[in-house]
Write a structure and sequence with these properties.
single chain, 195 residues, alpha+beta, 5 helices, 4 strands, 16% strand, extended
Length: 195
């Protein structure tokens, strides 16, 4: 929460070699960091100094900007099936983080814009379609899982966990394809009206 911007700090002469070595070794053995002040860009900033190899890392700290969050407590029950689907998606999408593979799309678009203006080409803003509203989280999770694997597999519900309204479920025939249907079986069942 307090960390802002890191800077490498390295010794610049023979006197600093001994100083950095002694202070860094002592801080490392004690498992502690140093807190101090430094002036950067004409402004005094709070900084944390941590030994790192032959040098140190100085991380500017946020002080007055940090405040306690005022989130509302979530009283709603979380659907276990949604959690199971989300954990499957997270497991499939997990991998190593490689900072070098990050593409700054803003910088790329800015370069394209500058090059187009330098070459005298007309510049038109790209049309970005508005995002479609997602109304059902379960459907979005299933869609994401299907996109990843090509199929959707949902965890089996236990009878006790089934909170669906049975009167609204559609009847599903469980007959095998090999069985022939009789005319009596094909007759539509009359619907009951609720009072």
């Amino acid at each position: 929460m307090y960390f802002s911007v890191p800077y490498y700090v390295y010794r610049d002469g023979p006197i600093a070699v001994e100083t950095f070595g002694v202070i860094g070794a002592t801080m490392g053995e004690a498992g502690m960091v140093g807190i101090g002040r430094v002036t950067l860009s004409r402004r005094e900033r709070l900084v944390m100094v941590e030994p790192r190899g032959a040098g140190s890392v100085a991380i500017t700290l946020r002080a007055s900007e940090v405040r306690t969050p005022s989130f509302a407590t979530a009283d709603a029950a979380i659907d276990s099936d949604m959690v199971a689907l989300a954990s499957m998606i997270i497991e499939r999408r997990s991998g190593q983080f490689y900072p070098a593979s990050f593409r700054d799309r803003y910088q790329e678009a800015l370069r394209e814009l500058i090059e187009a203006k330098m070459k005298g080409r007309p510049v038109r803003p790209k049309q970005i379609p508005p995002p479609r509203p997602v109304r059902d989280l379960m459907a979005a999770l299933k869609s994401s899982l299907a996109h990843e694997s090509g199929t959707v597999s949902t965890p089996k519900r236990r009878a006790a966990d089934d909170r669906r309204q049975g009167s609204l479920l559609l009847p599903v025939s469980r007959r095998k394809k090999a069985e022939k249907s009789t005319p009596a079986a094909e007759a539509p069942t009359p619907r009951r009206k609720k009072a």
